[in-house]
Amino acid sequence: MINYISTRGKSESKRSAEAIIQGIANDKGLFVPDRIPLLSFKPEQKIGSTYKYVAFHVMQSFLQDFTEEELKKCIDGAYEGTFESVDVAPLVKTKKSYFLELFHGRTAAFKDLALSIMPYLMLTSMMKENEDKRVAILTATSGDTGKAALEGFSDVPGTEIIVFYPKDGVSQVQERQMITQMGKNTHVFAIYGNFDDAQTGVKRLFDDEGFAASAAAKGYRLSSANSINIGRLIPQVVYYVYAYIKMIENGAVQAGAPINIVVPTGNFGNILAAYYAREMGIPVNRFICASNRNKVLTEFINTGVYDANREFYMTNSPSMDILISSNLERLLYHLSGGDSAAVLRMMESLGACGRYEIDGTIRDGLKSFYGGCADVEETNAAIGRLYEEEKYLIDTHTAVAYKVYEDYRKESGDETPTVIAATANPYKFADSVAASIGLAVDADGFANIRAVNASTGVRVPDSLRNLEGKEVRHRGTISIDSMAEAVLNSLA
Ligand SMILES: *Cc1c(COP(=O)(O)O)cnc(C)c1O
What atom in ligand 1 is closest to the CA of residue 103? Predict the structure, then answer.
């Protein structure tokens, strides 16, 4: 049986259901599987499989305390009728690479792949563990997690979902998606600050015993829908396995031959899932970690020094405007061979002085990662170039990945077949996309959606098309210091 242990080594091991309910370990570390399971099948034997089929077999390897019936129910609930593509995650071929389109869910970003199943995993876990409290899910968002979590948990019994987003750090469409959210148990707050402030604020609430006691007095325990929750991470492994099967199916690779994976990265959850897929047996040559102007990860990969003491920039790929990439802690744990004392030292150093340095073992493991970055001009140019050359339209985050991949290819000459994670629908960031393909940019984001649509003919997903007329249900901006109060007031 696979159990879940803390990266910092000072908490006892848990069943997956317990780890999902709890979110973060008692010693403030992140839960990791005590070993990463191998795939229970050979990818080439699964050609033609549905997404749900792959999801079941990948997730069953990690969630070994779930029964077959429980897991199947979760998967059906999450992926049946909730995605605009029957494929869930279609793989689109362009001249130089393959785009894995992860944006066909209800909120038009890749977060839907995990957050449409996580509420089912949470409810099932609560039932399995005979949890008598309700769960208050606190979530900091750089734009996309918030909406996907709200949509996923809306009216899920036994839960309240509370989301904090940086007031000036999300796109107009992202904000509108969140503040129009329906559901009696949904709560949305803008905060004065950036994403790191929101994330640190939420982490501080998790660390505050007095706060936990106040929530408990109201009948709640606290959990998180951020990718620090292992229930977020595991469903993301699925689509990399699925993509590899599709690559074999399309003749893009021969069974057993490696691929590269390019991921536009913020909190390091998505690219970590790709790493887990490799540990399960998917052959990956390079993980290409793409950052925007907040290039703390690029420098980390290139120098071995993680240094968050730097200016924070707001860019047009806001879901990657992050200086503290939480999930990197898990990679450090795995690459160090499970050296939790070393992880604890590095995380203490990060907490105390915003900086840490890795040792030789971790550095060696990092060699399969390439780090690169793109600024706003390069991002927009990449959107324009790909659209002009191939009539394929990508969003700003995917464009960061595309640009970094182009650089990597030039630098390395590596022709390994490559999958680029396409993380958001281009209409979510229509202002930048309009500018990038040479259209006049309107002050109103919705006008830009219409303009891009008129010019390109690319379909606008229903969830974004209907957004403009929706009633605003959540208002108000609060200070970081009022987050605790906001949560307690939200708990009935
Ligand atoms: C969240 C997000 C990212 C970053 O993913 P991480 O798992 O945080 O690294 C990239 N692109 C989009 C569109 C996102 O919503």
Answer: 13
- How many helices (H) and strands (E) the chain has is answered by 21, 15
pLDDT of residue 86: 81
Residue 345 is classified by DSSP as H
Residue with tokens 């968002």: 141
The number of residues making up the chain comes to: 492
Residue 451: pLDDT band (50, 70, 90) is very high
What pLDDT does residue 331 have? 98
In a mutational test of the pocket of ligand 1, which residue from 265, 317, 383, 464 has the highest number of ligand atoms less than 8 Å from its CB? Answer: 265
Q: Which residues contact 39 (CB under 8 A, 6 or more apart)?
A: 57, 58, 61, 241, 280, 281, 282
Q: How confident is the model at residue 216 (pLDDT cuts 50, 70, 90)?
A: very high
User: Beta partners for 137?
Assistant: 161, 223
> What is the C-alpha radius of gyration for the chain, rounded to an integer number of angstroms?
21
pLDDT for 492 beyond 80: no
Cβ–ligand 1 distance for 436 under 6 Å, the answer no
Span between the terminal Cα atoms of the chain, in Å: 38
The CA 286 to ligand 1 mean position distance, Å, reads 19
Domain segments of the chain: what residues? 91-108+231-464
Q: Are 101 and 422 in contact (CB under 8 A)?
A: yes
Q: Which helix (DSSP H) or strand (DSSP E) does residue 128 occupy?
A: helix 118-128
Are the C-beta atoms of 290 and 374 separated by less than 8 Å?
A: yes
CATH architecture assigned to 91-108+231-464: 3-Layer(aba) Sandwich (3.40)
Q: How many other β-carbons are positioned within 10 Å of the β-carbon of residue 213? A: 9
Q: Which of 444, 426, 445 is nearest to 436 (CA)?
A: 426
Return the residue whose CA atom lies nearest to atom 15 of ligand 1. Answer: 144
Dihedral in degrees, nearest 10, Cα atoms 189, 193, 195, 197: -100
Q: Contact at 8 Å (CB) between 452 and 427? A: yes
Instruction: Write the pLDDT tens digit of every residue in 90-116.
Output: 999 999 999 999 999 999 999 999 999
Backbone angles phi, psi at 52, to 5 degrees: -60, -40
364 confidence band (pLDDT: 50, 70, 90): very high
Pairing of strands 98-101, 4-6: unpaired
pLDDT more than 90, % of the chain: 92
pLDDT at 85 > cutoff 90: no
Measured CA to CA, the distance from residue 403 to residue 264 in angstroms comes to: 10
Contacts of residue 434, Cβ cutoff 8 Å, sequence gap at least 6: 440, 441, 442, 448, 451, 452
As given in the structure block, the two tokens for residue 330 are 């898990």
Q: Using the CB atoms, write b or e for 319-335: b if 16+ within 10 Å.
A: bbbbbbbbbbbbbbbbb
Could you read off the pLDDT of 384-428 as tens digits, one per residue? 999 999 999 999 999 999 999 999 999 999 999 999 999 999 999
How crowded is residue 219: how many other Cβ atoms within 10 Å of its Cβ? 12
Residue 281 DSSP symbol: T
